[in-house]
Design goal:
- The complex is a heteropentamer of chains A (386), B (354), C (264), D (557) and E (237).
- With 557 residues, chain D is mainly alpha-helical.
- Chain D folds into 2 domains: 211 residues, no CATH class; 220 residues, no CATH class.
- Chain D is 72% helix and 2% strand.
- The longest helix of chain D is centred in the middle third of the chain and has 53 residues.
- Chain D is globular and about 75 Å long.
- Chain E is built from 10 helices and 10 strands.
- Classes of the chains: A alpha/beta (386), B mainly alpha (354), C alpha/beta (264), D mainly alpha (557), E alpha/beta (237).
- The interface between B and E is medium-sized, with 20 and 28 residues.
- The complex binds adenosine-5'-triphosphate (2 copies) and magnesium ion (2 copies).
- The site of one magnesium ion has 3 residues of chain C, from helix 1.
Chain lengths: 386, 354, 264, 557, 237
């Protein structure tokens, strides 16, 4: 109808107006430089595939701009300040690293935006006592879930009674192995050793020798490539590790991992999101089409889900003018995001709680790598779900 | 007499001696505790040591590039770690291809030699190109200036290769013949370790011979001392400097493939950074500018890294000791340099000649 | 006259090479003395021992009745010994005046941090130091060249600047290592007069190493001859000139006869 | 004039190789997504066809003079030949997919290169390249004053379009968001605006050059008398001061944040300048003191982590302690390296820097330092009811600190201590023989340098609110070293310019993400090659370089 | 045609105009000396001839061949050797290695060995020290080494920059004798000396340099008697 009243913003913290013919502006803050660049590339790919799926949102295209957060607090802060200064930004996918999120969040939250992370796992981010701020969401698993599930699997399913862990000095891995260790001990197991390696290390024999000295039933190392590859490969060469089960986490859930790690990877367990076969295959096909090749790491699906959840939320709250103008209430958008329930994502069914944890841990699974994956098959079969 | 001796030592010396003493005592306690608890079998120690030697010989090969260039231009070629990366990273694709067509498994020796040559060729070209573009115009500039272009080149190379080959990790394929073990002194050692070690040592000996005995080698030493006078001797210093970069590049390229045999995983665009720093450390440890020094420095560093955490720190009850392995390596460096400011093999800067 | 510097049985070896061998020397206060000897005789090495660049292996060096062997160079300088170098070693990227200001270092007393708030003491001291530096520059005949970089000065001027820098610390003893090397006879003559002037005007004791016999014989009161690290002769210029051992080892027949002939 | 085809082809090929390089590393494709002018010109074009333009221009220039038609021909040939390498890539891609190895040679790139038309599109590509080359050649041929005007105009438009972030932020702050929409669509300049801007700049330059040319030479060359020069300087200072004071209002929060980052590195640079620039001690582990400052601030003021007086101290109390701790460690770490020279010093300090970072990260010291989880919840500074919780307010804090540091630096440089440092840098042995206690002099350099750095670290911690060991890696030291050398070693204005160039600029290039560091690296090389003495060199170092001759003076013992 | 012809060369250090149009020639078999005060440009002249510095203007020809465009290292093959000012020995190499470097461009191993003995004959001191690292030699010893090293290249034209600097009197005589001896054996010498008297005594001709220009040239014995030369450079008053 021609003479409809102009849209009026009644939102408590303001609105974004998208004029007719203009794109809806999404931003990303990912780590696309430095040693963690694979994480960023991976998440970015997920976002791009999602946007490719939905070229039209309420009659508008979606524009994606982005910043490098460099996986550091200062990088996150600068990127956050920059994104927050652009009032056309509706929502943000990011950050990759929890440290960057902590630093970016104040500015983002203050600006009324919302931010959905594909790989922040630090428990503090969704803890109102620990740094949570309104507008924060994540599809990544809180370490509390994944660490617990991995420990339960190890203790209950594998019957492990002694365990060792290794982290790589990243807040992510450090926290995850800590939760694992605590849960494992609480279940009645013994943690023989909690070790660490450095990013950039290639020689893992020393630390593996230490692990081997206690011949634990399982070794949990929720770290990334390439350090994870080195540990997997070199575990075969260290005397005393023959009977120790190897287990990693979603950081290693990448299709390059088996091939890069060599034979010893066969039989290894990985905890991670339960990405179901058919849909995921579909996603991979789209990836190959849009980005080319295969995803470099394990967070693309979370980013894909984040993007879709945000777009859904926009669709549900945006007021549409007759000329095509959109008015998106920022608080409304947050509310819609928080209200997400049973969202059927690549990473399982997502339901957000009031502090932005959208992955409940229900959709986690444990995978086992077999010869098939070593020879190029992907993904591995989920052998256990909680 | 005593008073006279005392008057010679300054409080700085006293402080340094105390520092050394404390460090030594701590190390000894660590060693003692480690050995008395006997957590590890000699088999395990041997595995670590041999791996350390193999790693060390790779450091040494890279360190030689630093030392050669430093010797001749008094310049830290900060991008040398990247030169190593370019060879290793480009060659991984060839290795994967060889694996796919079966060449790598059917005639491994030939294939490896081809890989080494390819890698050396890539690294050499990049090293020579770098000298031409980024260093030669600055030959007479104060020494910090080429250091900065080297840092710039380091970033440029990293991200060029990232742009070309992506940020993914690659791995060298397994080579069946290198999978076995070898019995050395009663220990079963993965075959690849002594192979890498021996090959590297062979290369280094060849290099040493080259520099000490051949005319080009002598010219290198002359250029390193005084370029103007070297020219007066009929030495084309540009040619000599280029050869030096080429030689260093070739060794780094070879190191890239050795590394791929020994540590197949983790080939990516930043793979050169840490080995570069380590090799630089090794070169300094041995006495920068000194060829045997670089070799010994590299081997020593490899050993310290492999054995240090378990040997020293664990005994002290430090959790996650392995995390501190670089710290130990650097600490040893500091201790040695306090004792011998010119490095292990470095020429004594003599008494200052006035 | 008291001896300002005494070296007793000083020995310095490098590996197997005995550069200075059981060398004993007395320098009278307010005198001009020379050390001569063939190349590689150990003259510079001896200077290096006195100024603390080298640690002596044996023997002692006494300056103003105080042992100074094996002390750090800065300590020796602060006690009142200054020197120049055989191969000029100026701070080549600093201006002439800055070189002299650095030379004044031992005389400046204000606490370094006072410079931040420019205390009165600091300002006064800097002012006098600058004044003094200018005076020294004039004294060595380099007026107007204060802002020239040391490296851009002509060779002779650099030698003079080095002396001015050495003088800036108000030394009691000045060691000059071949001050006229690389100068033509004319300039050499000037330098000779200048050295004499130094002693006469400032009362500084001077010990010099020279190969130019006109300088040595012209101004020294005492000449000591070293060969292979050992003293082979000592005495007045006249005695030395006709000492057969010295002629044999150092002067050569031609130079010796030339000296006699050229005697004024 | 005869056309030298070899030269022409050579320039063409250089341009072509650069185009190929940028295509193969993925820069062209990524940049193609960033519009510069409307939707017609994007940064991909700039990068790709810039090479062709330059090839045409340089090839024509190599021929010195000639008729305009000849220029055109040379440019055309150079431009066309510059298209060859990239065209070959396109053709090759058609037959052998290379994406498994060369990840950036993907369909999107090919589509961009062929104008979305597949192989036939190559014709268009050649056409475009030839045209650009031709324009480049012609450009070289037109009279100088026109060339200058047009060149400046084009450069101006390009700069505004590339750094549109900066422009839009300033516009938003001064005139509101709406003003941006007059000039820009999203991040791109509107075509009309671009044209107007081009003409305006060109006209301005043209007029100015004309006026200058007509003005009697004597007037321009007349030396300003001293008073006037002084007055000019005072005015300059006042203007700079005023600009610094109101910067946050003009620039807004993001650019204030960038300024904060610049300020932080200015502090680091000033400190390192004392160590490296004045005292000549090459320190590659300088970040350690920054870490001491930051961690001291963090641990003293936060209530989490260890309860080491947590929360007892506020920012203002903790600040001097943080500086003191850094100074203390400056001296302590200075000891072992006293006897080391040159590059030995460099590697040992690098080692110290790494040791400190590794210790901060370690599980061993986790109970104290927080390990990988860092130190969280560092309170924001607060005084007289002013809370320093925004980039704008923190900017003032870092500005004040930088001013203090610069002041102290200048005063020390011009004092006896400054001369001691300089002498030591020139010749350590002789300096010592001048009565200088080199031990003390070196330690003072380390200590003061560490103090500045610690100050920076403390403020950094307060601004971030949480610190992690990864923020104190080797790259910080390297960046600090690079910036003081790029700015001009030993020069205080140089530190500022260096920080703007190497910290500020990359921040503005944040949207170019993974290529930021590539650009940074190339920039470092180019800057050093063109201005080895740095942008604003201190006198001493200028002298050192410009003594330049074919050979170095032989150093003989 | 003279062996070496220097025609109107201008050499700069950055902006410093050090040589302002020097022209000189050296004939086959001659000893020619350059004298002049400190900073007159003697060293610069030699460095320009030997190719270490490039003249901004002017030409240098050797036996008619233009050499001012050639890099220094190629001139060695044309028979030019130089004893640089300040000796320039390779400090970390042994005495013998230094001498061998002098013969770097030669391939006649056997002759090199006999030449080595020849140099040791000229300077017995060097033979004593043949294994010593050159940096630790005394100043005079280094001077001998530098001269010996230049001779090892069997030059046809030898450029010597203050070879007597820092030498003991007994050696100064020796060095001038040596110069004359090698000249007799066919080596042409261009000699820069502060010890002008000695230099003029053995030279055939001489040039007087002043602030980058040649102000006087003549037969050596005539120059020796020239009153201005005597006053300015020979210290005769
Ligand atoms: N640092 C050193 N290491 C080894 N040998 C040295 C060192 N310094 C000097 N020498 C040796 O000691 C001897 C004496 O050297 P010194 O420099 O004192 O001679 P000099 O008398 O000053 O000679 P000249 O008149 O030529 O300068 C020489 O043979 C020299 O080779
Ligand atoms: N490396 C340099 N940089 C700048 N100027 C220089 C340099 N070397 C020499 N000069 C200047 O060039 C001029 C000529 O110097 P040159 O060394 O040729 O003189 P010289 O006649 O050899 O003097 P001396 O007798 O002192 O050796 C002098 O004014 C000198 O200051
Ligand atoms: Mg001497
Ligand atoms: Mg000279």
């Amino acid at each position: 109808g021609g003479g409809a009243a102009p849209l009026e913003c009644t939102d408590a913290i303001g609105c974004v107006e998208v004029a007719a013919g203009e794109p809806i502006h999404l931003a990303y803050m990912l780590t696309v430089s430095g040693a963690t660049a694979t994480l960023g590339d991976d998440s970015l790919g997920g976002i791009r595939v999602a946007l490719n799926d939905r070229p039209d949102v309420l009659g508008h295209t979606v524009e994606l701009t982005g910043e490098d957060e460099g996986c550091s607090a200062e990088g996150g802060q600068t990127a956050g300040t920059k994104v927050a200064a652009d009032p056309s930004v509706v929502a943000i996918v990011g950050t990759n690293c929890s440290g960057a999120a902590f630093a970016a969040l104040p500015a983002i939250s203050e600006a009324g935006m919302l931010m959905c992370s594909s790989s922040n796992t630090n428990p503090g981010l969704t803890d109102p006592e620990g740094g949570w701020l309104p507008g924060y969401y994540r599809t990544a698993h809180n370490d509390k879930f994944q660490g617990r599930i991995a420990a339960e699997f190890a203790y209950n399913e594998l019957g492990a009674r002694t365990a060792a862990t290794i982290h790589d000095g990243s807040p992510y891995a450090q926290a995850l192995q800590q939760v694992f260790a605590e849960t494992f001990a609480a279940l009645g197991g013994t943690v023989t050793f909690q070790g660490a390696v450095n990013v950039g290390d290639t020689d893992m024999r020393a630390v593996l020798t230490t692990v081997a000295a206690d011949t634990p039933d399982i070794l949990y190392y929720p770290i990334f490539e390439p350090e994870g590859n080195f540990i997997t490969a070199q575990a075969a060469e260290v005397a005393g590790m023959e009977n120790t089960i190897l287990m990693g986490a979603d950081g290693l859930l990448a299709d390059t991992f088996p091939e890069n790690s060599g034979e010893n990877v066969v039989g290894m367990y990985l905890s991670g999101p339960y990405v179901t076969g058919a849909t995921y295959d579909d996603f991979l096909a789209k990836w190959a089409e849009v980005i080319g090749g295969v995803p470099p790491s394990g967070f693309h699906a979370f980013a894909y889900d984040c993007t879709n959840m945000i777009l859904d939320a926009i669709e549900s709250v945006a007021q549409q003018g007759s000329d095509g103008t959109l008015l998106i209430g920022r608080q409304a958008l947050r509310d819609a995001m928080t209200a997400t329930a049973g969202f059927d994502g690549l990473t399982g069914s997502l339901t957000c709680n009031e502090y932005g944890d959208c992955a409940t841990g229900e959709a986690l699974a444990v995978f086992q790598i077999t010869e098939a994956e070593l020879n190029g098959g992907w993904p591995p079969a989920a052998i256990w779900t909680p | 007499m005593l008073r006279r001796t005392l008057s010679r030592v300054s409080w700085v010396d006293v402080f340094l001696r105390i520092f050394q003493l404390v460090a030594a005592v701590v190390i000894l306690i660590g060693l003692y505790k480690t050995f008395t608890t006997a957590r590890y079998s000699s088999e395990q120690w041997a595995t670590l040591a041999f791996a350390g030697l193999a790693q060390g010989s790779i450091y040494a090969l890279i360190a030689l590039g630093y030392t050669l260039v430093y010797g001749i231009l008094l310049m830290i070629n900060f991008a040398h770690g990247e030169i190593y990366m370019t060879g290793a990273f480009s060659t991984v694709f060839l290795a994967m291809y060889f694996n796919r067509i079966g060449f790598l498994q059917s005639s491994p020796v030939l294939a490896i030699i081809v890989l080494i040559l390819f890698s050396a060729a890539v690294s050499t070209s990049i090293a020579v190109l770098l000298e031409r573009i980024a260093y030669r115009p600055l030959r007479n500039a104060p020494r910090l200036i080429p250091l900065i272009t080297a840092i710039g080149a380091s970033f440029a190379l990293q991200y060029t290769f990232r742009g070309l080959f992506g940020s993914q990790f690659r791995a060298y394929p397994d080579i069946a013949v290198l999978k076995g073990t070898w019995n050395i002194l009663g220990f079963d050692v993965p075959l690849v370790q002594p192979v890498v070690f021996l090959a590297a040592v062979l290369l280094m000996v060849a290099l040493y011979w080259f520099v000490e005995r051949t005319k080009t080698g002598k010219a290198m030493r002359a250029v390193s001392e005084d370029k103007a006078v070297a020219r007066l001797m009929g030495i084309d210093i540009d040619r000599i400097i280029v050869s030096t970069f080429a030689l260093g590049g070739a060794l780094a390229g070879a190191a890239g493939v050795f590394n791929g045999l020994f540590r197949p995983q983790g080939v990516f665009f930043l793979m050169g950074f840490f080995p570069g720093i380590k090799a630089f450390t090794a070169a300094v440890l041995g006495g920068i500018g000194n060829i045997p020094g670089a070799m010994m420095g590299g081997l020593l560093l490899g050993l310290i890294e492999a054995l240090g955490p378990n040997l020293i720190l664990e005994g002290l009850g430090i959790p996650a000791a392995n995390q501190l392995k670089d710290a130990i390596a650097f600490l040893v460096l500091v201790l040695i340099l306090i004792f011998r400011p010119q490095g292990i093999f470095g020429e004594r800067l003599a008494e200052k000649k006035a | 006259m008291a001896n300002i510097l005494t070296a007793r049985n000083v020995t310095k070896t490098f590996g197997g090479l005995v550069a200075v061998n059981d060398f004993t020397l007395d320098i009278a206060e307010n005198s001009i003395s020379s050390v001569i000897g063939p190349n590689g005789a150990g003259k510079t090495t001896f200077f290096n021992c006195v100024t603390g660049f080298y640690k002596v292996d044996e023997g002692e060096i006494i300056f103003n009745s105080e042992q100074i062997q094996n002390r750090r160079t800065d300590v020796v300088t602060r006690k009142g010994i200054s020197r120049t170098y055989q191969n000029i070693r100026l701070f080549s990227n600093m201006s002439a005046i800055e070189n002299i200001l650095v030379g004044q270092h031992p005389r400046l007393k204000t606490f370094w941090a006072e410079a931040v708030w420019k205390s009165k003491r600091f300002r006064n001291e800097e002012l006098t130091a600058l004044e003094e530096a200018r005076r020294l520059l004039r004294f060595v005949g380099l007026q107007g060249m204060g802002d020239t970089l040391a490296r851009n000065l002509p060779y002779g001027a650099q030698r003079r600047l080095e002396i001015a820098r050495a003088l800036a610390s108000l030394p009691k003893l000045l060691l000059l290592d071949e001050p006229t090397a690389g100068m033509n006879p004319n300039e050499t003559g000037e330098m000779t007069r200048f050295i004499q002037h130094l002693r006469d005007e400032l009362g500084i004791t001077i010990l010099l190493i020279e190969h130019d016999m006109r300088v040595v014989m012209g101004i020294s009161e005492q000449v000591t001859v070293l060969d292979y690290g050992s003293k082979i002769a000592e005495g007045s210029p006249k005695e030395i000139q006709s000492n057969p051992r010295v002629i044999e080892a150092y002067l050569g027949r031609g130079a010796a006869s030339g000296l006699k002939a050229g005697k004024r | 004039m005869k056309i030298n085809w070899k030269t022409t082809l050579r320039y063409g090929l250089i341009g072509g190789v650069s185009a190929l390089y940028f295509s193969m590393i993925g820069m062209v494709e990524l940049f193609a997504g960033r519009n510069l002018i409307g939707t017609t010109v994007n940064m991909g074009h700039l990068l790709l066809y810039g090479g062709m333009l330059a090839a045409g221009l340089l090839a024509a220039r190599a021929h010195h003079q000639g008729k305009l038609a000849q220029h055109a021909v040379i440019g055309l040939v150079a431009g066309l030949s510059a298209a060859i390498p990239t065209a070959l890539l396109v053709i090759l891609h058609e037959f052998i997919p290379m994406q498994d190895v060369f990840v950036s040679v993907n369909n999107a790139l090919i589509r961009f290169l062929t104008f979305e038309r597949g192989l036939p599109g190559l014709l268009q590509f050649f056409l475009a390249s030839g045209l650009l080359g031709l324009l480049g050649g012609l450009f070289d041929g037109i009279p100088t004053d026109y060339r200058r005007a047009v060149g400046t105009g084009l450069a101006g438009v390009a700069i505004v379009a590339v750094f549109s972030d900066l422009v839009t932020q300033v516009l938003t702050n001064l005139f509101g968001r709406a003003s941006v929409n007059i000039f820009f669509v999203s991040k791109a300049l509107k075509p009309v605006i671009a044209l107007v801007l081009l003409l305006a700049i060109a006209a301005f330059v043209f007029m100015r050059d004309r006026r200058k040319a007509n003005a009697p030479a004597a007037v321009a060359a007349a030396p300003l008398d001293k008073r006037a020069a002084l007055r000019k300087q005072v005015i300059l200072f006042v203007i700079i001061g005023a600009l610094l004071a109101i910067a946050p209002w003009i620039l807004g929060s993001f650019l204030s944040q960038v300024l904060f980052e610049v300020g932080r590195f200015v502090l680091l640079g000033l400190g390192l300048n004392i160590v490296v620039g004045y005292a000549g001690l090459l320190d590659l582990g300088y970040v350690a003191f920054f870490a001491f400052g930051a961690y001291t601030m963090g641990l003293l003021t936060t209530t989490t982590n260890l309860n080491l007086g947590g929360g007892v101290f506020n920012f203002w109390l903790a600040l001097p302690i943080a500086v003191l701790v850094s100074v203390l460690f400056g001296v302590l770490l200075g000891f072992p390296v006293l006897s080391l020279r040159g590059d030995y010093l460099a590697i040992v300090t690098l080692g110290f820097g790494e040791i400190i970072r590794i210790l901060a990260l370690s599980d061993w010291l986790k109970p104290i330092m927080g390990g990988a989880q860092g130190v969280l919840f560092i309170p924001t500074p607060e005084i007289f009811g002013i809370v320093f919780d925004s980039p704008e307010s923190m900017y003032y804090l870092v500005l004040a600190a930088a001013l203090v540091a610069a002041f102290v630096s200048i005063r020390l440089r011009d004092s006896r201590l400054g001369r001691q440092w300089m002498a030591m840098r020139e010749d350590e042995d002789v300096a010592e023989a001048m009565g200088i206690n080199t031990v003390q002099t070196k330690l003072l350099a380390f200590a003061i340098g560490a103090g500045f750095s610690g100050l920076g670290g403390a403020i950094f911690a307060a601004r971030l609110g949480n610190i992690f060991p990864h923020s104190f890696n080797l790259l910080i030291s390297i960046n600090a070293l690079s910036l003081i050398i790029v700015g001009g070693l030993g020069s205080i204005p140089g530190v500022i310019v260096g920080a703007i160039a190497l910290v500020g600029l990359p921040e503005l290039l944040r949207e170019f993400q993974e290529y930021r560091l590539l650009i940074y690296g190339i920039l470092l090389i180019v800057m050093m090659l063109n201005r080895p003495e740095g942008f604003l060199p201190a006198e001493v170092f200028k002298r050192e370089l410009h003594a330049g001759e074919i050979t170095e003076p032989a150093e003989v013992e | 045609m003279a062996m070496l012809e220097v025609h109107d060369i201008h050499t700069y250090y950055g902006n410093i105009h050090a040589l302002k149009g020097i022209s000189l020639e050296v004939n086959q078999g001659e000893i020619v000396t350059l004298i002049g005060a400190n900073g007159a440009g003697k060293t610069t002249t030699l460095r320009t001839i030997s190719g270490l510095l490039r003249p901004r203007q002017g030409t240098i020809t050797l036996n008619g061949e233009l050499i001012s465009e050639l890099p220094a290292h190629e001139l060695v093959y044309k028979g030019i050797a130089m004893v640089p000012e300040g000796r320039g020995v390779f400090a970390k190499m042994s005495v013998q290695e230094n001498l061998e470097m002098g013969a770097y461009h030669r391939n006649d191993k056997a002759v090199i060995t006999s030449d080595l003995e020849y140099v040791f004959g000229l300077f017995p001191r060097l033979k004593e020290r043949r294994r010593q690292v050159s940096g630790t030699l005394s100043g005079g010893e280094q001077q001998m080494l530098a001269t010996g090293r230049a001779l090892m290249s069997k030059p046809t034209l030898l450029l010597m920059d203050e070879p007597s600097m820092g030498l003991a009197p007994i050696l100064v005589e020796g060095i001038f004798d040596t110069i004359q001896a090698i000249n007799k054996e066919g080596t042409t010498v261009l000699l820069v000396e502060q010890n002008a008297l000695m230099a003029l005594s053995i030279a055939h001709r001489g040039y007087v340099l002043q602030t980058g220009q040649i102000v006087l040239t003549d037969k050596a014995d005539k120059l020796k008697k020239d009153p201005t030369v005597q006053k300015a450079y020979l210290g005769v008053d």
